[in-house]
Amino acid sequence: MTEQTIEADGITLCHESFGDPSAPPLLLVMGLAAPMIWWDDEFCVQLAEAGFHVHRFDNRDVGRSQWWTGRASLPLAYFLRSSPYSLGDLADDAGKLLDALGIERAHVVGTSMGGMIAQEFAIRHPQRVRTLTSIMSTTGARNVGLPSPRAALAMLAPGPRTREDYVTQLVRTSRLIGSREYPFDEDHFRQRAERTYDRGLNPAGVFRQLAAILSSRDRTADLRRISLPSLVIHGTADPLVHVSGGRATARALGADLDLVPGMGHDLPREVWPRVIGGIKRLATR
Length: 285
Prior knowledge:
Elements: E1 4-8, E2 11-18, E3 25-29, H1 41-49, E4 53-57, H2 74-80, H3 87-101, E5 106-111, H4 113-124, E6 129-135, H5 149-155, H6 163-177, H7 186-199, H8 203-214, H9 220-224, E7 230-235, H10 243-253, E8 256-260, H11 272-283
Parallel strand pairs: 3-4, 3-5, 5-6, 6-7, 7-8
Antiparallel strand pairs: 1-2, 2-4
Helix pairs in contact: 2-8, 3-4, 6-7
């Protein structure tokens, strides 16, 4: 299915689906500064082949979804928890999308910031979640899931001025935070970067999303109250969200925990069968 723009209760979201519309719906939520195409097309096809009607979308402030307004201050976000919008607002966007698509309940899978959004969605709208899968994410507690200094600096690097600068920077960052024990497909990341640039960059939106992360609350207590089939997947070599974040998430949810040896802050093709298999097993409980 090609991309479509949906008006969802006051916000415009770009959405795409894969698979049989009669299959159980599965919503994919992507992370910081990342459009929906970072859920690789082939990964989405394989999820659809596993028995899901797969939905991916651009969060607000990225790609072809609505770009927000308001100036983000990262110090204010961290120390005063002040930001133009919250992770809860992003979670509500996901709910509005499901409403617009006529979906009452879905399997929800989020990665990185998308995992935080998925957690917030389950906290706010538990009746709409069939299962919850949180990948390479954390609880919002400030003593777990911390990035390495190099990874943190890479996230705060000045924005590129040209298409080629963006491609070069994204490939370099992907190599830095990615899975060093798996082959690095530079052509794949270069093509992803080119496609991302061509769909539209929103540097101010990246800072607003980052402010939403930095201003977020500790979700641990609320996650403990969730009684949903849950799975947490995390790489043991993640430099951007330390594996302690995944462990804390799994403890809070009482979830199954799958620690993937050598995986960094990405989903190498080699681990797709493991990830898709885990999501499918969770859904068939």
